[in-house]
Design a protein that fits this description.
mainly beta, Neuraminidase, 5-stranded antiparallel β-sheet, globular
């Protein structure tokens, strides 16, 4: 069993509903969207031609330097090719730009009239720019509480055109919690979208193990219009051609994937998946071993049995921790920057309530090293990676920090 443990942490008293909300609410089925399968011509994930340096955790000394404050409940972070600005999404629906450490008073995009965040896990949940920076993709819950994935065009100066709005996907959310919402472009230039299980305590409809719904899964799509459809499905997605499965699904069995990322050097995928009531987990899938992965929910929570639901081929998390050490994982990044050489190659994540940043070292699918970084940030909702591979930490209290050598 490939499961690690972290040292005990003193918990903060405030806990976002993202963590372990188990409200039982009426459940429904998401609508069926048109599916167009396309032949992919994008580049494969990166391969390493030289041996990457190992992290030296014994030499790591890290500090969190404030970059900007005054944001209102920031949740998501993104950067754009050939653009020095840092982009931060506020939960209520504003996309803000930070330029040279100064928060631009004018929002880049205002979606406040389209969004509900009454459930505390709702709102503007995810943002991602296309690889060349000419389009912005957003994931939010609309006024009915349902998920919308939309696209906007972006000009060379970074201005978003609100009139260019185009909808890719709409998914009914049966409850107010477990909406996922993260958006990431993968190494091959395709868009990955995270969905939680739809909410309610314990995934009452079994969405995590149901391939006929987009809930409880990470999707992989070509976001550009294809053959009259708003997006295309790559022909090498694992469930293409199966009548009982949605072709958009890349992996499934997730409760609420709260931030996932690709290692920019290897293409490996790391996922922070929020637990129900006992375990938080970090999932790891090496490049080339990701398609069709089943992470087990709701048959299992972490590496432990949870229900009698069958979960064929379910994988163990690479790392888990219990409620004595945290209550809501916030997934991070493998550090590939230059500011902290000893940390390079380690995966950095946090727990929303515990507030401590943790570094993990992976080798051959196993955790071989771990270190609390001695940095505490309250209410970590997200991490960010800039164009140079430096790491940023987003606090729901309104601050963005950059990790630097202490």
């Amino acid at each position: 069993m490939r499961v690690g443990r972290i040292l005990a942490a003193t918990l903060a008293t405030s806990v976002i509903a993202t963590a372990c909300s188990s409200d039982d609410e009426p459940l429904g089925d998401p609508p069926t969207a048109p599916t167009v399968v396309v032949t992919t011509t994008t580049a494969p994930p990166p391969t390493t031609t030289t041996t990457l340096a190992e992290p030296r955790l014994a030499d790591v000394e890290v500090a969190a330097t404030p970059i900007v404050s005054g944001l209102t409940r920031p949740l998501a972070f993104a950067v754009r090719t050939a653009d020095d600005a840092l982009y931060v999404a506020e939960q209520a629906g504003l996309l803000r730009a930070v330029r040279d450490g100064v928060l631009d008073p004018a929002p880049v995009l205002d979606l406040t009239g389209d969004i509900t965040d009454e459930g505390n896990e709702q709102g503007l949940l995810g943002i991602a720019f296309s690889p060349i920076g000419d389009r912005l993709y957003v994931d939010f819950t609309d006024n009915a509480g349902d998920t919308r994935i939309q696209e906007f065009t972006v000009d060379a100066s970074g201005q978003v055109d609100p009139a260019s709005r185009r909808e890719l996907l709409a998914v009914d959310q049966p409850a107010r919690n477990h909406n996922g919402g993260h958006l990431v472009f993968g190494p091959e230039g395709l868009l990955y979208i995270g969905f939680g299980d739809g909410g309610g305590g314990g995934d009452p409809n079994g969405n995590g193990q149901d391939l006929s719904t987009l809930l409880g899964a990470i999707l992989r799509i070509d976001p550009r219009p294809t053959a009259g459809a708003p997006y295309g499905v790559p022909d090498d997605n694992p469930f293409v051609g199966r009548a009982d499965a949605r072709a958009e699904i890349w992996m499934y069995g997730l409760r609420n994937p709260w931030r996932f990322s690709f290692d920019r050097a290897t293409g490996d995928l790391w996922i922070g998946d929020v637990g129900q009531s006992a375990y938080e987990e970090i999932d790891f899938a090496a490049a080339g071993d990701q398609a069709g992965a089943n992470w087990g929910w709701n048959a299992r929570e972490g590496a432990h049995d949870y229900s009698d639901m069958p979960a064929p081929g379910a994988r163990d998390p690479i790392f888990e921790y219990g409620r004595d050490e945290g209550v809501s994982v916030s997934g991070g990044f493998v550090y590939r920057g230059d500011a902290i050489p000893a940390l390079r190659g380690a995966y950095v994540f946090a727990d929303y309530a515990a507030g401590r940043l943790i570094a993990l070292v992976e080798r051959d699918g196993q955790i071989v090293g771990q270190l609390p970084l001695g940095v505490e940030v309250a209410e970590v909702t997200s991490f960010g990676e800039d164009l140079d591979g430096e790491l940023y930490v987003v606090s729901r209290r309104g601050d963005v920090f950059r990790l630097v050598a202490a």
